[in-house]
Automatic annotation (TrEMBL):
Pathway: Phospholipid metabolism; CDP-diacylglycerol biosynthesis; CDP-diacylglycerol from sn-glycerol 3-phosphate: step 3/3; Lipid metabolism. One of its GO terms (cellular component) is plasma membrane. It catalyses: a 1,2-diacyl-sn-glycero-3-phosphate + CTP + H(+) = a CDP-1,2-diacyl-sn-glycerol + diphosphate. It is found in: Cell membrane. Its EC number is 2.7.7.41. One of its GO terms (molecular function) is phosphatidate cytidylyltransferase activity. InterPro entries: PC_trans (IPR000374). Belongs to the CDS family. One of its GO terms (biological process) is CDP-diacylglycerol biosynthetic process. This is Phosphatidate cytidylyltransferase. Coiled coil: none annotated. It comes from Natribacillus halophilus.
């Protein structure tokens, strides 16, 4: 427990300072997160010893991370062209390796690149486009969901939420996480409202909490399928980057699209 607390405090400082500063410092932090998360996925499937596949997949993931006008780094056209070239290169590897690496390997690398690259792209875009207060609002809702699910699950948890994927998660814990996210998010919104209307803030909190728990279950399913306890060991006591930011990767694309449709 002590190790978890120390890691959490140090990690929070390292994370919040670039988040607050924004600009190149935050872009650098998210880039490092993307690289580590992608490598963790390769290790889950035991592809970390395949440098060519990893290099191409990581390059495509970073292109998706930087793509679009908000990044002002890579245009959408250049991204589409580069990703297309990357797909063809990966498909050629299946031939050149005499099917040592086959189609499902290529699919895994492509999907891993999209999962990490697109998820963190919207996280990065939200900070650069919507500002520190909005991103902090979303993060507080995510963290409140995790905390509430843990506390309510330990105290009141009886009915398993999804036993074949994550045996320790309970319906009561999920409900507690949802309620704490609403309370924490509305308190935050009282001082720094992310939207002009309260109903938009409430809808956003509902979406964040539900999507965050879905992201956590997706990561649990992934780890269970590949029979690993943690995605990595970068954060002592907490696992890897994917273990800590699975909800962030899942939430930001969803909240970005939904809020764009509603506002």
């Amino acid at each position: 427990m002590k190790q978890r607390v120390v890691t959490a405090l140090i990690g929070l400082i390292i994370f919040l300072v670039p988040l607050y500063m924004g600009g190149p410092l935050f872009v650098t932090l998210v880039t490092v997160m993307a690289i580590v998360a992608f490598i963790e996925l390769l290790r889950m499937k035991r592809l970390a010893t395949s440098p060519l596949l990893g290099f191409v997949g990581l390059g495509m993931s970073l292109l998706l991370l930087y793509a679009g006008p908000r990044m002002d780094i890579v245009s959408n056209e250049a991204t589409l062209l580069a990703v297309t070239v990357g797909v063809w290169l990966l498909l050629l590897v299946t031939v050149l390796s005499n099917n040592r690496y086959h189609f499902d390997t290529v699919a895994f690398i492509l999907f891993s690149g999209a999962y990490v690259g697109l998820g963190l792209h919207f996280f990065l875009a939200a900070r650069l486009d919507s500002g520190f207060a909005f991103v902090l609002f979303v993060l507080i809702a995510i963290w409140a969901t995790d905390t509430g699910a843990y506390l309510f699950g330990r105290k009141f948890g009886k009915r398993p939420l999804w036993p074949k994927i994550s045996p320790k998660k309970t319906v009561e814990g999920a409900a507690g996480g949802f309620l704490l996210a609403l309370v924490a998010g509305l308190i935050f919104a009282w001082f720094w409202p992310p939207f002009d209307q309260l109903w938009l803030t409430t809808i956003a909190l509902i979406i964040i909490s539900v999507a965050g728990q879905c992201g956590d279950l997706v990561e649990s399913a992934l780890k269970r399928y590949y029979n690993v306890k943690d995605s990595g060991r970068m954060l002592p006591g907490h696992g890897g980057v994917l273990d800590r930011f699975d909800s962030v990767i899942f939430v930001f694309p969803i909240i970005y699209v939904v809020m764009a449709l509603l506002t």
